[in-house]
Design goal:
The structure is a single chain. The protein is an alpha+beta fold. It has a domain of 27 residues. The chain is 25% helix and 33% strand. It has a 5-stranded antiparallel sheet, covered by helices on one side. Strand 4 and strand 5 form a beta hairpin. Helix 1 crosses helix 2. The chain is globular.
Length: 67
């Protein structure tokens, strides 16, 4: 479980959400065909996890300073 998502490994290096098998994560993007949504890491934090943009950016980059 990472960032509150319970995931399991699937073929082709995909990860699948346990409670919604239509939600897939792979390397630097995710997609949710059932809801016609997809995006990058920032979009995942904002759209799916509900974080404000700046908080999402901080979590992804860690302690790095962002200009």
């Amino acid at each position: 479980m990472k960032r509150g998502l319970k995931l399991r490994e699937r073929p082709a290096q995909n990860l699948e959400r346990l409670d919604d098998q239509d939600f897939l994560v792979k390397d630097s993007y995710w997609r949710w065909p059932e809801r016609n949504q997809a995006g990058n890491a920032i979009a995942l934090f904002v759209t799916v996890l509900g974080h404000p943009f700046h908080d999402a950016k901080r979590q992804i980059l860690g302690s790095q300073t962002v200009l």
